[in-house]
Write the structure tokens for this entry.
Amino acid sequence: MANPSTLFRFHLAISDVDRRFYGSLDLRLAMHPSESESYLLTRVIAYAVNFEDGLEFTAGLSSADEPAIQVLGAQGGIAKWIDIGNPTARRLHKASKAASSVRVYTYKDVETLKKECAGEVIHRVADILVYAVPAGFLKDLAKALKRDNHWTIIHNEGELMITVTGREGSSVASEHQTFMTTLELHRLG
């Protein structure tokens, strides 16, 4: 019998200064048994810093033909394709042909991704944005991961600050932990 998925809840208060988005989101995500905490956390971060109407999680690991996160276009098809990890050059080529905008959020070695894509045919490769989320940052953030998470996220000029707090309204004093990093932008071509 296969191991069941683990359900996580994220209450996000987001201040994305660059995009002038300020709002709250309540997400419920199932972490597949084969999914790492780094993958899960990177999915949440990518969703938060790209939030717009219509943004949705897909079947992700269960479907090789879909991005992890997407926005569907008004005429059908995919307007924004967001992948997590280090997708293959072939997958990026397909994504770039299928969507107007392609972004990758990688928690893996970005230089490995660049080397694997070098010399490969990738449609509109110069338009693909790759953001590196440092492994140490994710490792520290994972230590604060609970089944019910309350995060305050501030994103400004590539700098990302996540403050993790206890449950709101708790009679016990909440412990706050703040994690900071830079989402480094890379290009493949």
The chain has one domain: 6-187. Residues 10 and 44 are 8 Å apart (CA to CA). The radius of gyration is 17 Å.
